[in-house]
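Entry for the shared binder. Reason: the reviewer on the internal report wants the predicted structure included alongside the sequence.
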Amino acid sequence: MSAKKSLVVTLRIFFILFSLMFIRDAFYKWDGYSYYMGFKDFLPDLSLSFILWTLLGVIAAFLFWIVTYGLSKVSLRYLKINCFEQVLIYFLLGIIAFILKKTFLDISISDSIGINYYLFLISSGLLVLVLFWLASKYINFEKALVGIDIRIAPLFWIFTVLLILAVPFSMIKKSTSDSKAGYHSQPSTKTAQGVFIGNNKRPNIIVVVMDALTALDMQLYGYHRPTTPFIAEWAKDAIVFNRAYSTSNWTTPSTMSILTGQRPWTHRVWYLAENHPVSFYKNNLPDILREHGYAVYGFAQNNYAHPKTLGMKDAFIIRDEVDTFWISPTWLIDKSVEFYLKRPIVAKWIFIDNPLVSPFNIKLFRFPYYITSIRPETVYNRFLDVIAGKTEQPFFAYIHVYPPHFPYNPRATYMGAFGDAEELNTPEKQINSSLIGTYYKPDTQRKVNILRKRYDEFILDADNEFKIFMERLSEKTDMSNTVIIFTSDHGESFSNGYVSHGEFELYESLVRVPLVIKTPRTTKTLTAEMPVEQIDIAPTILELADIPVPEWMEGRSLVPVLEGKTHEPRPVFSMQLMKNRILGNYFIDKGTIAVWDGGYKLVNYLEKNKSLLFDLKSDTNETRDISKEEPQIAQRLAALIENELSRANKSIKRSNAY
């Protein structure tokens, strides 16, 4: 077969193989994305991904042809594999076998038959060579390849038409999702009381959220390492809530709760909204503040927590894009990050999760967190520049900084401060450790503990940057009429067999977060032991600003606690609901929900119909399930979850009726 003909056949075969693999992958992708977007919104990303995937296939085909055509002419003669057609057919059979195995038998064959993996590879390789040698005696490979080329022609033209159609479809402007829960409630006329306002005018209010900061690793809350020396000192004339809980174990649902005063089962933004942003969520705190005369600013380094992602962009008069806070070393990386932010589904599908690209570790296409330097001072400095000299209008600022979120990459000054400085001391080493976002076995605990040191050092670094921010803030604004709320969106785990956050665990390390409220009137440390929730932050802010708290907020103001009073204890809830569909009339029946009440905590795994009960007073590390020893307590807490979940599902049914 001539060189030209062999190249054409190679391109056709690769095009069809890549198209078949893409279709297989597309079904799996759509199965996930269909939980929160319609197919017409998925179509532009599907089309662009098909185009880019095809380009990768063309590149792979050229490389394959250059190598195999040359080898077939020279170096494979001693194996009696002396023609290009033979090599291409063997490759084709191997790829088809791989696709069939991944589709119908995605298990380890070596484990199934009980032999060593490398021994299995060697044995299989030798067997394949013998079969190839035997086949070469009886098969006319050139004739066989021509026959294959003729028979695949219809598929080639079908996929070619689809590729042509993909071009205009990839340019369709995507819509954004509508989260129905925020559309049909009406604000109440409930009045605010007990306002903390200095100089008889509404205070400036700053909410600082440090991403993935667990209270359990903070010096402020009794942690054995000095991770937050400044925050511990700064909080001496503030109100410290010792048992504050996030509404979920990852960013989007929890930040949505901070800014709405609603739990995830109410605001229903428990999915990857970065991939399909909420179009407009009416019931939000920033919008209320702006309606009452506040200048509203939003500065977020994490796209999962950006006002645009959460459907609140119109409430903010300034809301910089997240990439303006990322320090990229080159123009090329800047553009790759920009592409990721605009088309996250395509970037993740083709460049991040793609096995053809990932082995080469191409930094251009790696997740932006790994290719940029994300430092909190870029956010702090931007905010300080905005408020400089502005004194007439009160302002509300939502500041979400990325550290100490993974990768745990403190500056050199702090790296190794807590020991084992040479281990897991770069983002690459941490990624390659295969620990992040995984369940681990007990014999891995030492490695996990070292990773936790890097995390703690990143907290120490972030603590110092917060110190500098507070010092500069006092120079830029009137602190005698400024309220600062310090918190986190969720925690981080290095225990209970799980590393990082997300998945479906709700251990204390994942959901117990810092909450410190500093007002001009507070002159000594006040501590509150009662459990509180993120949903309490929004109504607290409204009462501090002397603005009525709407009925749709599920939280309650903490102003009485700031005044030294007490609240009637009530159950606290947290949840991870990502497995539930957001589109259509679907009730919540999957995921994990936890409730705290009276010193006890129950974690309910809905799908497994399984619950774990912990007595947090005697078992702070949650190592002992006492549900069988205390069945009445377990039943009471389970009933709390069941009743609240039933109420939430009734609300979903009503919202779907509109």
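Summary line for the report: DSSP finds 21 helices and 19 strands in the chain.
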